[in-house]
Amino acid sequence: MSTLIDIRAAERTYDMGAVQVHALRGLDLAVDEGEFVAIMGASGSGKSTLLNVLGCLDQATAGTVILDGQHVDRLSEEALAHFRRTRLGFVFQNFNLLHRSTALENVELPMVYLGIRGPERRRRARAALERVNLADRMDHMPSQLSGGQQQRVAFARAMVTRPRVLLADEPTGNLDSRTSAEVLDLISRLHAAEGITVVMVTHDADIAAYAHRVVILHDGRVVHDQPSPAHGGPPIPHIRSLDAAAADRPGPAPADDREPTP
Amino acid sequence: MNLVVWLESFHIAFREMSRHRMRSFLTMLGVIIGVAAIITVVAIMEGARHTIQGQIARVGSNMILVIPGSVSLGGVRAGSGSASSLTMDDAAAIDRECPAVAYSSPVTNSKLQAVSEWGNWSLNVQGIGPEYFDVRAWKVEAGRRIEARDVDAAAKVCLIGRTAARQLFGHVDPIGLRVRVGGTPMQVVGTLAEKGQNPLGVDEDDTLLVPITTYFRHLSGRSRPDAIVLSTEREADIPQAVEQVTALLRDRHQLTRSEANDFAIKPLAEAAKTAEETGSVLTALLVCIAGISLLVGGIGIMNIMLVTVMERTREIGIRMAIGATRRMIMHQFMIEAASLAGFGGLLGVLAGIAGGSVLSRITGWPAIFSPGLLVTPMVFAIAVGMLFGLLPARRASRLSPVESLRHD
Fold first, then answer.
1. Which of the listed residues B268, B289, B313 is the one where a domain comes to its end?
2. Do B322 and A113 touch (CB under 8 A)?
3. Scanning every residue of chain A, which has its alpha carbon at the shortest distance from the alpha carbon of B405?
4. Which of A38, B62, B275, B312 sees the fewest Cβ atoms within 10 Å?
C-alpha cells in the first residue's frame, strides 16, 4: 500500500506578539492509503493543529507535508482550496452544516465549488443521503434534524465528492453514547465499503478503539503509535498518565504549549 | 470562475434578501430614491424640452421679432412697444436693403368682433404683409394666401384659422363666404392649417388674417405696424440679419452714436436656446443631488454587508473548508451587494416611472422615458453596489478558515 500522508519534522509556530507558541514541534507521521487512524491527545497536545495542517486549512511553518503525492506545504492558497475541494472531506464536532440550507443543499455544496451542474449535483447528493439512511429527510433544515442525523448529513457532504482522505474532528463530541456508536459504525462502514483513508481526532479511548491504529500526541510530538487493541495492539494508555510521564521529561514549560484561541 | 458558483451566489443573494426583507428594503432605500429621482427629473425635463422645441419649431426657429422700443418722457420710461417708432416704410426698407433677411412682414393685431350668417365670435385679427406666411411657416389649407395685390389694393379679403372657422361657420366650408369684421364685410379666400397653441398658450387657430393696408383703412385709424417679423434662410444668418436691420433702422431713425435704439430686435431661437441652457443646468444640478443619494445608498449597502460578513463568518469558514477559494468568497459577497443595489435600482426605476407620470399630470409636461434613461441609472446603481461591496467582500475573503470555523 502506498503512503498517502507523509509528515516529516512538521512545526507550527504561532506568533502571539511577545511569545511564540509551538503547537507542533517536529512531528513525524506517515499514513498509508486505506488506513483508519485515531489521533488522541490532551487539549493543547497539537491534535487540532495537526488536523488543520492535514486538512490544508493551515500550513506548517517548517518541515514537509506530503499529501497524496503533493507537497502541500508549498502550495498557494488557491491551490490548497482546490486540493481541499477535490481530495479531502471534513466532518466536525459541531457538524458545521449551513443552517439556512436544507440537508440536500448542504450535501450539494462541495459539488457547487467543483462546478457540477444542478441536476447532476442533486442526483449525487440524493444518492449520498440515501447511503447514510436519510432519504426521507432531504428537504429538512439542520434545525429540524437530531444531532446524529445532522452528523450523517455532514458525512454525506464529506463523502459525496469521493475524497482521498476523510478528516473527522471529534465527530462524536456533541452526541450521546448511543448516537456516537451509530456514527462510528457509519465511519467503519464507509471505510470498509469505499476503502477511504480516515483520520479521526478524539480524546476518548473508547472512540479511538474503533480505529485500526492509534496515535497519541503530546507537546506537538507523537508519543504513541500502535495498532488499536482490536487489531492486535496494546491497550490504549491513559492520556493523563502519558502527560505525567512527559512532564517528568525535560522540555519547555507546558504553559507555552497551549494552542492559541482567537 | 465558473458559472455554477455564480449561479449559487445569486441564489444565496436572493435567499438572504427574502430572509431579511425589512433590512434589505431599508438598505436599498437610498438607491431606490436616487434612481427614482434621476428618472423623474430627467423624464420631466426631457418632456419640457421636447414641448418647448416643438413650439419653437412651430413659431419658426429662424424668426426675428422687431418691436418699437420704449419711449422716455421727462425721465419716466414707458414699457417696450410704447413708442410707435416703426413705420411701413421701415418694413419696406428692411425687405429691400437687408440681404440676410429672407422674408419680412409688418404686423398689427387686435381683438375684434367678427359676425357671419351663423354667429359671431371675438377673435384675434392680424393685419399682415404677403410674406407673413413664409416668416411664420404657416400653411394654407384651402384657398389662397393674402397676396401682394391684396395689400396694394387694401382688398377686403381674409384668411381664417381653424378655431375661428368652426365658431363662425360650423362645418360649412367658409371659402367665398362673407364675414363682417368690426362692421366691414370681408370675403374669406382661404383657411389656415391647424397649428395648436403657441408657447404662451394662445390658440393660434383662433385668428383671422387681413391685408395690413385693409387693417389700417377699415379696422383702425392707425398707420404704423405693431411689429415687423422677419426670418432668415438659415439659423446661422440670424446674427448678420440682426446687425443689418439694426444698422438700417438706426440710420433711418437718425439716431446719433450716444442714443440708444428706439426699437428692439428679438431672435426667437436665442430665447429658446437660453431656456434650454437654463433647463439643462437645472437638470444637471438635480441629477447631481440624486447621484449623491445613490452614493449614500451605496454606503448603506457597505454597512449592511459588513454586518452580514460578521454574522456569516462561520458559513464563510465552512465554504472555505469545503473548497471555496478566497476569490469565490469575494465574488459571492460582491454579487450579494450588487444584487441588493440592482434590485433597489429596479424598484427605483418603477418608482421613477410612477413619479414621472404623476409629476407629468401635475405640470402638464409629458414625461419622456427613453430606454437609455431607464437603463443608465440601473447600471449606475449596480456599479455603486459593486464599489461599496468591495470592502466587505475583501474582508470576507481574507478571513482565516480555521478561525472562521471556530466562530460562533
1. B268
2. yes
3. A96
4. B275
